[in-house]
Amino acid sequence: MKKLLLLTTLAIAVSSCGKKLPEIAPDVITEHTLHDSDDPAIWINPNDASKSIIFGTDKNTEGAIYAFNLDGKVIEDKTVRGLKRPNNIDLEYGFKVNDSTETAIIAFTERERKVFRLYAVPEMIPLDNGGYSVFENAVEEEGDSPMGIALYKSATSNKIYAIVGRKNGPADGYLHQYELSSDSLGVHAKLVREFGKFSGKKEIEAIAVDNENGFVYYSDEMHGVRKYHAEPSKGNEEVATIGGEHFERDIEGLAIAKYEDRGFLIVSNQQAHTFNIFDLDTLAFIKELNLGTVETDGCDVTTMALGDKFPNGVFVSMNDDKNFFFHDLAKLKLTE
């Protein structure tokens, strides 16, 4: 991610048509990470949503997974340090450990160790015996260096999968999908699928999954947002592509906001310092927003109320100043 010399503390975002967009100020700006903030994930506390946690990666050789409360303060005893370039992160609920206990899990890539990691949340207990190796058959330079990750929970089988992207790869089969399972010997990750086209123009990092409808979206950064079936049995044909004409250059972070009657795909228009909003069903472009962030790599969203602090849900986005912005979701006016 290229660092910018800022003349002001916040960027002036310009839409793809050249018009300056009004800034929607964040409700909370987190404390700083040490190195390079990258991608967030939201854990909703089932007992008290006001005590939910925002996790965020700090992408560096001596990186970390930071845990923040809803005031943006670091929760040190939930923060994992000493990681080798953690990149993207995702979270899922209801993973069965030993076919008995259910737990929420976070998965994140640890690029320099060429693995992805798996932790129980909120205890932050590792489940992976040090990590799962990925892309072991790669032939391209940096083809075994994991970057993006998303967790998919099948609505039909309740199986949970990790879908992993990388720094470089083939024109087809760029993504690998791993089935997660547990038995008396531990938690396992089995490669079950290789899929996904790649333009070769830059890389694929941001991945998001719509569990209910069974689709996975990923950013082919200088080409477009690609859509595939997330269920392995549905095949590997591309379903749709959102073209790069909607973006200034790099297409980055992805987040899916689901309401009862409508869904939205939120995509970082990285070099314009804005976000493009699309209808989740039709993929029609709706609008572009300036949320004050610079060069956003990753984002996440929930439409669930998180106490009095975020009664309408929250949108979390990475900012290129070693921090993350939290916006009350109503400020994005998705449903208007």
TrEMBL record:
Residues 14-336 form the BPP domain. Gene3D superfamilies: TolB, C-terminal domain. One of its GO terms (molecular function) is inositol hexakisphosphate 3-phosphatase activity. InterPro entries: 6-blade_b-propeller_TolB-like (IPR011042), B-propeller_Phytase (IPR003431). This is Phytase. PROSITE patterns: BP_PHYTASE (PS51662), PROKAR_LIPOPROTEIN (PS51257). Pfam families: Phytase. The lineage of its organism: Bacteria, Pseudomonadati, Bacteroidota, Flavobacteriia, Flavobacteriales. Transmembrane segments: none annotated. SUPFAM superfamilies: Thermostable phytase (3-phytase) (SSF50956).
